[in-house]
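Hey, I'm writing a tutorial for new members on how sequence and structure tokens pair up, and I'd like a real worked example in the thread rather than a made-up one. If someone can provide the structure for the chain below, I'll link this post from the tutorial.
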Amino acid sequence: MFKRFVSISQHKKGRFNIDGEWFQFGRKQGINFAEKEKLVAPEISLGGNFSYDEKGEFYSTTTIYGYIKKQGVTDSYKVLMAILNSQLCWWYLVNTGTVLSNGYFRYKPNYIKPFPIPIIPPATTEILDELVTQIIESKRTNNNIRIIELENRINQTVYNLYQLSETEIEEINLINH
């Protein structure tokens, strides 16, 4: 009368057999890193949507990637987030990725990895870190006009960091507007 249930770990040839339980439907891939400081970003996005998980307390049931700095990387998460959320990074993905429905793109780690991060001078680090801190505070108070102003300042700082010409900046701005 009752059919024997095949465990998911048997069905998938042991790929999911982490705890030996029949009810486990997912792998714990990367779970040891979940409670660490990191950047998080959705796989599919319309522009940069990296967020800073300072205390390692954010989880999601959808595809969200966590980015943890390798040992020896001295750039702060806020600075990296500023660069990865910049119009320049979005322009890069538009020009190297594949468009999905309604202009969305995939922000998979393999698509982000080739984006070059230059050596960031200490003065630029201070500027970007402070601008991101101000954006975080402005988001707490829903000051959207201030956020747009700060994002524009970040974009200009990133353009300067990459030593872009006015012509290159205009090209980036055409795609982003």
